Amino acid sequence: MNQAKLYTKDLHLHYGEIHALKGVSMEFPARFVTALIGPSGCGKSTCLKTLNRMNDTVPGVKITGKVLLDGEDVYAKNVDVPTLRKKIGMVFQSPNPFPMSVYDNVAYGPRVHGLKNRLALDEIVEESLKAAAIWEEVKDRLKKPALRLSGGQQQRLCIARALATKPEILLMDEPTSALDPISTAKIEELAVELKKEYGIVIVTHNMQQAARISDYTAFFLLGNLVEHGPTSDIFSNPKEKRTEDYISGRFG
Question: Residue 218 is part of which domain span?
Answer without folding.
Answer: 6-96+167-247
